[in-house]
Specification:
Layout lengths: L4 E12 L2 E13 L4 E5 L6 H8 L7 E6 L2 E2 L5 H11 E4 L11 H11 L4 H14 L15 H12 L6 E5 L7 H18 L2 E5 L3 H7 L1 E6 L2 E4 L1
Parallel strand pairs: 3-8, 3-9, 6-7, 7-8
Antiparallel strand pairs: 1-2, 1-4, 4-5, 9-10
Helix pairs in contact: 3-4, 3-5, 4-5, 5-6
The structure holds adenosine-5'-diphosphate (ADP) and magnesium ion.
Length: 225
């Protein structure tokens, strides 16, 4: 079977004033369907940059990203936003939930953007919140939830459109140990039960070990750990 994702000779530089700093320098990566990958590396090496590029939240300076063997067309905004919404779930260190909406409404948002019918979006969102153990918190606003509960809502939101890939950037970085482990277990369950591939940037070594395959980002490229 083909790869889910391939990254080919990826470059990314940023301008800092007059100076160009190159963060990714000819990076390659292959990811199989349903695979789990931990991206580790020192702070500032470019882990978030890489996840943003894969998620098409930012454009590479050079290089290609292939999804299901097709090059993602970086200049086609319609195709990009479709790809971003339908194929990828994002989980960030800080969850970016909408403060004025309830848990269930937050989970519904990506589905409503895709014009899913309201009743169906609500029932899907409720089913997911039940799965992440928040059956009794459906109508709470984020401010009334603990940090771990908020992150579980964010994870539920990331999978409502049944993506094939979750990109998680330090998903447990702002959580204490036990709560962080709950979020880890939840990501693993989604991987195992739904076959969703996981790419996780983390500096948590235990988490990285549990993920399985680890690569270290260093000098702009990935090395097996
Ligand atoms: N939009 C940007 N403009 C300029 N520099 C950036 C931008 N985004 C990231 N950087 C720089 O790129 C480097 C890598 O950042 P980042 O990908 O966040 O690293 P990591 O996630 O591994 O800690 C850092 O030096 C950061 O300052
Ligand atoms: Mg980062």
């Amino acid at each position: 079977m083909s790869n889910l994702l391939s990254v080919r000779d990826l470059y990314k530089s940023f301008l800092e004033g007059e100076k160009e700093i190159s963060i990714l320098r000819g990076l390659d990566l292959d990811l199989n369907h349903g695979e789990r990958l931990a991206v580790v590396g020192e702070s500032g090496v470019g882990k978030s940059t890489l996840l943003h590029l894969i998620g098409t939240l930012d454009r590479p300076t050079k290089g290609e990203i292939l999804y299901l063997d097709k090059v993602i067309p970086m200049d086609d905004e319609t195709a990009l936003s479709h790809f971003r919404n339908r194929e990828i779930g994002f989980v960030f260190q800080f969850h970016y939930l909408l403060p004025d909406f309830s848990a269930v409404e937050n989970v519904m948002v990506p589905a409503l953007i895709q014009r899913m019918d309201l009743a169906r979006a609500r029932s899907e969102a409720e089913r997911l919140l039940e799965m992440v153990g928040l059956k009794d918190r459906m109508s709470h606003r984020p401010g009334k939830l603990s940090g771990g509960e908020q992150q579980r809502v964010a994870v539920a939101r990331s999978v409502i459109l049944e993506p094939k890939l979750i990109l998680a950037d330090e998903p447990t970085g702002s959580l204490d140990l036990r709560i962080g482990e709950e979020v880890q277990d939840l990501l693993f369950r989604l991987n195992e039960e739904k076959g969703i591939a996981l790419v996780v940037a983390t500096h948590n070594r235990d988490f990285a070990k549990k993920i399985g395959r680890q690569v270290e980002l260093r000098e702009g490229r990935l090395f097996p750990v």
